[in-house]
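Handout, page 2. Input:
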Amino acid sequence: MNGNPKGFLLINSDVFEYDFSSCAYNILKNSGYDVSTIEKDDKTKRNIQIGYIQRDNPDIARYIQNSIENLVDFYLKENNIKKEDVILRQKDGIFTKKKMTNIDCTMPIDFRGIVLKLIFDVTRKKWLLVYGKNNVVVKGITNRPCDTSFYNMFSSIDFSNKDRCIRQLEYIRRSIYNSKNIRWFSREIEDNQLLIPVKGIGEMKVRQSVLQMIDPEDIEKSFLWEDYVWPFCRSIMIYIER
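Output:
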């Protein structure tokens, strides 16, 4: 992940989000590569097919990656976006402090909207994108739970009032430990099978069909708070104590 690691903020407000639509596909197409067998309109299939192409041909993989980097560099330079204005840079997307106005050159880069709050964990390997009320997206986590709607609670945080903010973080903690939503604590490992942490046993493999038979009180809930939620709460605590 690229961006401005020196002095970066854990909490960023009103961030401009941009990315390229069907980026790798269009790069291949514009380079003369035969894309007739690629499912252009099915994102999942398209990405899988292009992934296979890159796996089997490292030169093509390098060409796509270099082309994306050059395109992002071009738009940053074209819009006079300095390194310190870049909050987060991904493969084919970028988050900036300033709005770009010239986005239709070469291969157009799309303005996706404004992220109200972008919250990093302290390692800067995971982040939350708060788009609005109950509209939060998490990136960078592994072993993703089946249901990540608990992150929507972060959309109600009041960063302007320290005491209220602390109370809201405590509300999130209590909501995790008191939750009866077993899907928050389960991870899908294969078709119709889940891993669920059970008190005194550890992770147990169960079928989707028996999920409703499990008592939420038997679930070991601490891992969700400690591994998935607390890292972002920690960043908020650091932010409000600054």
